[in-house]
Structure formats: C-alpha cells, structure tokens
Amino acid sequence: MPVTTDDVKALRERTGLSVMDCKNALESTDGDMDKALIALRKKSSAAAAKKSDRTLGAGIVQSYIHASEDVGTIILLSCETDFVARNEEFKTLAHDIAMHATATNPDFISRDEVKDEDVSKAKQLFEEESKDKPADKRDAIVEGKLNSYVKERVLLEQPFVRNPELTIQDLVEQAVQKFGERIEVSECTRVSVRD
C-alpha cells in the first residue's frame, strides 16, 4: 500500500516525531498506522536506552493546579541542555506530566522506588484473596494482581490520561527520540487539601 503525505502527516500529528521517522515507519509497515505506531514506540525505547548514561544538566520545573485550586503537582523534568529545556514542546510535556500526576496521584516515579516490603505486603494480600482459586492458577492470578497494583502506583507506567494508549514512559521516550537527549522525570510532588 503506498504511503501518502496525509498518512505521514497524521502519524506525525499523533507522535510529534520527524517527517522522515514517520514516513520510514509507515513504509516499513506497508502503510499500517497501528503497526507504524508500534514501530516508532520501539524505536523511541531503543533511543532512550542508548542515552540512559548521559548526564542531566538542565531541565524545567513545571506545575499544574486543578481548576478547583485544591490539588496540584510540581515536577522537575530533567534533560541535558538548556536548549531543550527552553523548548515549548518540552515545557508542554512537563505540564502534561504534572497534570497527569495531579489526576492520578502516583506514589512513585519509577518501579525502582517501590520498596520490597510494599510489594511483599501486597503479595500477601493478593495470596489471601486468591486462596479459593484453583491451585494451578493461583500464582498467575497473584502475579497479575501484583503487577497491576504496582503499575497503578508508578507514574511512568500509568496510561496517560489524555491518551491511554501511551504510558508516561512512552511520552518521555518519544521526547528522547525527538530532542536527541536523555530526559527524565526527576521529582514529582503532589499536594492536595483533602489528602
């Protein structure tokens, strides 16, 4: 199937990546938009992994205060250079992550921050809940519940509230590919009148 400029434009609008990246992804997947999105996500993940050892020397502090003014979040989105930190798309990404965190109230930024004792307590609870299930399926049930529990509490693993097809990690990886720098959510603090 031939790739049209409208297809490339549509994919670029969805991802924010370069015209060439979008065109190449569509050509490699015979014009299949869904497969092209998956290919671009894999490429973004690979790009992020290559840059993971670079030094973060710049960034932006961004906040989001809900319209009710009773809850808000402040985040530090780090990058390598001031050039990227001052980019409007980078600022928008930081604002979107702050808005997401305000809505979802994550306990951790990444899975690395989850304490073993929290996982152990949750696992005990899920084992207790699953004790009446068939023995051969219990471990899979407990593992599935445990994985879901951790994903709900970890910012980078949560589905983005504006586009549940993407996680916050996907957004960060797309930005890494777009800007060519390591990008990381370094700090995230949510404050609420009710909590």
Give the amount of beta strand, in percent. 15-25%
The arrangement of helices and strands along the chain is HHHEEHHHHEEHE
Query: Are there runs of 5+ residues with pLDDT below 50, and where?
Result: none
How many H/I helices?
Answer: 8
Number of strands: 5
Helix content: 40-55%
Strand order of the largest sheet: 1-2-5
Task: Please report the first level of CATH classification, the CATH class of the largest domain.
Answer: Alpha Beta
Give the mean pLDDT.
87
The multimeric state of the shown protein is single chain
Shape: globular
Give the biggest sheet. Answer: 3 strands, antiparallel
* SS class: alpha+beta
CATH superfamily of the largest domain: Elongation factor Ts, dimerisation domain
Q: CATH topology of the largest domain, anyone?
A: Tetrahydropterin Synthase, Chain A
Intertermini distance: 54 Å
What does this structure look like?
This protein has 195 residues and is an alpha+beta fold. The chain folds into three domains: 5-50, Helicase, Ruva Protein, domain 3 (Orthogonal Bundle); 58-110 and 154-192, Elongation factor Ts, dimerisation domain (Tetrahydropterin Synthase, Chain A, 2-Layer Sandwich), CATH 3.30.479.20; 115-152, no CATH class. The protein is 54% helix and 17% strand. The protein is built from eight helices and five strands; from the N terminus they run αααββααααββαβ. Strands 1-2-5 form a three-stranded antiparallel β-sheet. A two-stranded antiparallel sheet has the order 3-4. Strand 3 (159-160) and strand 4 form a beta hairpin. The longest helix has 19 residues, at 135-153. The radius of gyration is 19 Å and the shape is globular.
